Amino acid sequence: QSSVTLFGIIDTNFGYVDNTNAAGDSKYGIGTSGNATSRLGFRGVEDLGGGLKAGFWLEGEIFGDNGNASGFNFQRESTVRLSGNFGEVRLGRELVPTYRKVSSYDVFGQVGIGMFQGWSNWAGVGTADANGYRQSNIVSYYTPNFSGFTAGAGYGFDEQATGKEGRYAGAFGAYDNGPLSVALSFDRRNVGALGAGTKDNLTVGGSYDLSVVKINALLQQAKYKDVGAASGKYNSYGLGLTAPVGAGEIKAQYVMYDQKAIDSKAHQFALGYVHNLSKRTALYGTVAYLKNKDASNMALQAKQVSTTGPGAGENQTGVQLGIRHSF
Amino acid sequence: QSSVTLFGIIDTNFGYVDNTNAAGDSKYGIGTSGNATSRLGFRGVEDLGGGLKAGFWLEGEIFGDNGNASGFNFQRESTVRLSGNFGEVRLGRELVPTYRKVSSYDVFGQVGIGMFQGWSNWAGVGTADANGYRQSNIVSYYTPNFSGFTAGAGYGFDEQATGKEGRYAGAFGAYDNGPLSVALSFDRRNVGALGAGTKDNLTVGGSYDLSVVKINALLQQAKYKDVGAASGKYNSYGLGLTAPVGAGEIKAQYVMYDQKAIDSKAHQFALGYVHNLSKRTALYGTVAYLKNKDASNMALQAKQVSTTGPGAGENQTGVQLGIRHSF
Amino acid sequence: QSSVTLFGIIDTNFGYVDNTNAAGDSKYGIGTSGNATSRLGFRGVEDLGGGLKAGFWLEGEIFGDNGNASGFNFQRESTVRLSGNFGEVRLGRELVPTYRKVSSYDVFGQVGIGMFQGWSNWAGVGTADANGYRQSNIVSYYTPNFSGFTAGAGYGFDEQATGKEGRYAGAFGAYDNGPLSVALSFDRRNVGALGAGTKDNLTVGGSYDLSVVKINALLQQAKYKDVGAASGKYNSYGLGLTAPVGAGEIKAQYVMYDQKAIDSKAHQFALGYVHNLSKRTALYGTVAYLKNKDASNMALQAKQVSTTGPGAGENQTGVQLGIRHSF
What we know:
The structure is a homotrimer of 327-residue chains.
Chain A: E1 5-17, E2 27-32, E3 39-49, E4 52-61, E5 77-84, E6 87-95, H1 97-100, E7 134-142, E8 149-156, E9 168-177, E10 180-191, E11 197-209, E12 214-225, E13 232-245, E14 248-259, E15 264-276, E16 281-292, E17 315-326
Antiparallel strand pairs in A: 1-2, 1-3, 1-17, 3-4, 4-5, 5-6, 6-7, 7-8, 8-9, 9-10, 10-11, 11-12, 12-13, 13-14, 14-15, 15-16, 16-17
């Protein structure tokens, strides 16, 4: 019996986005991860007896359009774990606990042109992980499920000789019961010179399944403090619907980004359809429209085709048609 | 039942090449991919019913001499596929259809010091893929086999906001029947500033198996247009023989490179022997001689030992002795 | 039956080191490879009949704290092998024969804050491999075991057009019989401009198992010659003890580094405990103290937390608490 499971997803699509720069040029080509992030991973679990288990998870992103021109790594997740009646403790690099659960209320699964973009490095300060998805050097803890209640917390070390730039701390709580699901999370990152500034993310999300349609909501505030001109708030409000239709699913989502720090708003509308050819394979299509107002210069996330903004106050339309294959 | 097949080849050799620079210095050491390109890959196929199949292929090169000092990636192939009675459609990065079949008439399999070098970035314009082997952002289509006839076509997106540098389009047709095999391919790449120039590759190849010996021929023209001083033609003419001897195979090939753009010729002679220890493992040896005339400064391809030219009009001799192990 | 074995280790820890720079700052965070080097690999063996076997080994390091931020490669080992009654021949990149066996007398297994640091690029001349662990472009030979006697030799090609910088040559012999194990190795590397200088490593080690405790000794001289001011000797003397206690093992080691080239000494004391949760999984803890004298500025090796010196003549204390999980 092997102690390793090899797994992955390849999601590749035709993508089109107009107004990909201030000159108004459009781009089209082969993009990746329109329905799920392409990945390759190795994971395993060992039963140590007495309810105790050890495990590991190594997972890296795949860029199917160019064969990972920048090289392959395991930055999606690299953890070693111990779990038991007490819950689970993990060490390494992974999605932060304050993202893992609450991000599930984005009906586009945090990928592609329809995705909720509240998690972003809005003010451009801090490390690459300041977008809020993942953290290196993190220890995290997840509780067992108590009648639908779950919770978790994490601490990411800054590993600085002086200061605390890159440090992370956060916690979440969630409740799932029948058709209802809700979650709340809060985290803080130390950003800027010596980590003297902070980026706080407060997120609340929920869904209710009416069987013919499932309603999702996601509200988030990203607040930058003590980082000079970059200080300020970015509020994101998302409302999404999913509805099963035969072998497929229709998805629709509206997100409003109230970028108070720059006194500007943006509106994102997305409609998608996923057609399952099997449990492992699906075809999908998404259209999205992003309306920037005033100084806002947000972009649709058509990975590996275009992710750059149209210019302040300009709009962007995008299409993705692709295939997702899991193994 | 696992949905993934893990596969690969390690091919490592002792290599020697004289005249590796204008000073006439020779080089020797441990090289890679003398008989087949060293690789590691993951692939799988899923039966979707009704003759339809989904699949994926991830494959990266292995440099056994230094452990992939520049990192591991999947630039040899990263595709997701759908196939059925209609043929096969692939998305991602891979060998272009105009190379895959017709390159098979090189008796040295496009590796090592004996290889046919018509596919090269002769004029040094365009992206790394301008050598003509592979293409990122490509969609390709392969027909089913109709009584020996097969064909395919591909289109590689440039993904430029302005211009079309890096765009690829090409098609091939082939016929295999008993001892006879022939193929023809044509492709165009947009190269140079904004892709205003073109590199066209026209290739025809064939083989005839006389049982005691198999005769191979490969003729190719690479034509650069509208790229200033780099414009011009490069014609390559190859003639190869293979003959089974016991558990092994003898290979011999002559290639003449008529570099019309620089009004210079080069002649390459190669002799090789492959001794199979099993279906998976072989020992091999190759000797090759490259005769540059006038301004020609071509080099023998002793990967990871020496691939640099001896200087205009100078000659080069090379030897590779190695082992190829598949898994 | 698959021809490939997928294997690996993830070893992640909490690490702390004081005096990590001249300002006396301490560092703490998530480190890697405190008890064994984290790795992911693919290997296989094929029986060719008649006692002959072919095989391969691809293995790369895993940095579980950041998911291999610098990319994944196979620089730990990339070899193809042939073995039989004559012994084994290997081609590629791997641990040099003069390190493989004799380094086993370091009771901390050449990882973490307790490790014997004789193998180092003391004078800072030569390539990255001048630390003495590994070599690219190497061919090596290992004898069969003759009643406890084993030996091996290797030659690493420099692959230079002129000069011989990076060349390696070395051999070892060893004897294992019941409680006794001894080994001796010598190697030479060509370092500095054109490889005109040399770095010689002479190492002798041994262990004796008294059942309740096992005594290990490791003596090494690294001698730099003809590299100007960097010439000189570095002698390292290690004495280690291991003792099984229940499901675990206690380890203690003292190493004295007599850096004659800079007329300075350093003393390293380490104490560790490994608690096995299963054959595959263990928890561990190590404390270490490094006392630099005069111009010595050595550092404890708390990988991915701190490996920098405290300043000349300053001391360093470190702690590692971690988990090692093999698959």
